[in-house]
From TrEMBL:
Alphabetical list of Pfam families matching this protein: Phytase
One Gene Ontology term of the molecular function aspect: inositol hexakisphosphate 3-phosphatase activity
Domain (BPP): residue spans on this chain: 19-345
Transmembrane segments: none
InterPro entries xref list: 6-blade_b-propeller_TolB-like, B-propeller_Phytase
Organism of this sequence: Flavobacterium orientale
Protein name in the entry: BPP domain-containing protein
Length: 350
């Protein structure tokens, strides 16, 4: 499809979603791939890297409906597998090396909002290994799990799920669960931490963890991006930063982390109603790691993006320096060659 025709189609999509949304900008970067549409409503993606051949990596995305599920896409955007039916899966994340029956397994974990559970699937077969699901926010009046991100502790490889919800009290809005072998080929989870401030303006749906630097980022919609330590062993729930409070049109949404080195790179946050991504330094401003000033704003072809993910791993000729994946209205995900994103960042960096 020619670029002008693509923008025309996307502009019509913005109109169908209500006149409060901004149209896709003429300078928006174009995706290398647009996925096949799901039946209902895409929300959040996660990238699984093949351990032997990165060109065989896949993207896992949620289809958010009472009869939804996880969909698996190849790097050409073709749907190659669907999970068992799930009741409104919201967000998804991926981790590697969960010890199960003495073997290390890659997993995808998603929130299942209508059952108040998280669901765990082995990868790349996308088979449920959670015994029917794990209840979260047990005992709370407000449950409705939405956001999720996985933290793998570098020192011992233990994997934790940090879960957010539609509503909840400030101070204990997020619950953190340690994942472990529950026997009989299934995964269990125990609450190890409750933390996280909440403005009460909308919700905290988008979460992202930086394993190497040890932080978790949370998009408190219409307020800002909150930053905390990811490791519960620190016994420190201090809010390290709130940033992006004046950089967004309305909602702060999906968060993706692109790693240039072990300690540097970018944090990209969806400026949902503007159809752009606001970019910050992963390592923080010079000399102040918990201060994050906007570096750039990348206009994309996505419409009202909820979720995003990124990888620096070379994925073949289409994505030689990795890729950036973002959800879009129209029941799709857009795959961008990272080089196109980097070009816009470089043109705006001071």
């Amino acid at each position: 499809m020619k670029k002008s025709a693509l923008f025309s189609l996307l502009y019509l999509l913005t109109l169908s979603c209500g006149d409060k949304l901004a149209p896709v900008r003429e300078d928006a970067i174009s995706p290398t791939v647009v996925t096949q549409p799901t039946p209902h409503d895409t929300d959040d993606p996660a990238i699984w890297i093949h351990p032997e051949d990165a060109t065989k990596s896949v993207v896992i995305g949620t289809d958010k409906d009472s009869d939804g599920g996880l969909f698996m896409y190849d790097l050409n955007g073709k749907i190659i597998k669907k999970s068992i039916p799930l009741q409104r899966p919201n967000n998804v994340d991926i981790a590697y090396g969960l010890l199960l029956d003495g073997k290390k397994v890659a997993i995808a974990v998603t929130t299942e909002r209508e059952t108040n559970k998280i669901r765990i699937f082995s990868l790349p077969d996308l088979v449920a290994i959670d015994g029917g699901g794990i209840d979260v926010f047990v005992g709370e009046v407000e449950r409705d799990p939405m956001g999720i991100s996985l933290y793998t502790r570098p020192t011992d490889g233990v994997i934790f799920a940090i879960v957010g919800r539609k509503f909840g009290p400030s101070g204990t809005y997020l619950w953190q669960y340690q994942l472990s072998d529950a026997g009989s080929g299934t995964v269990g989870a125990n609450v190890v931490r409750k933390f996280g401030n909440f403005s009460g303006k909308k919700e905290i749906e988008a979460l992202a963890v930086d394993n190497e630097l040890g932080y978790v980022y949370c998009s408190d919609e219409q307020f800002g991006v909150r930053k905390y330590y990811a490791d519960p062993a620190k016994n420190d729930n201090t809010e390290l930063a709130v940033f992006g409070q004046n950089d967004f049109k309305s909602d702060h949404e999906g968060i993706a982390i692109y790693k240039k080195t072990a300690t540097t790179g970018y944090i990209l946050v969806s400026n949902q109603q503007a159809n752009t991504f606001v970019v910050y330094a992963r390592e923080g401003d010079s000399g102040t790691p918990n201060q994050h000033t906007m570096l750039a704003e990348v206009p994309t072809s996505t419409v009202e993006c909820d979720g995003a993910d990124a990888t620096h791993v070379a994925l073949g000729s289409q994505f030689p320096n990795g890729m950036f994946v973002a959800m879009s209205n129209g029941m799709t995900f857009h795959f961008y060659d990272w080089n196109t994103v980097q070009k816009v960042i470089d043109s705006q960096k001071k």
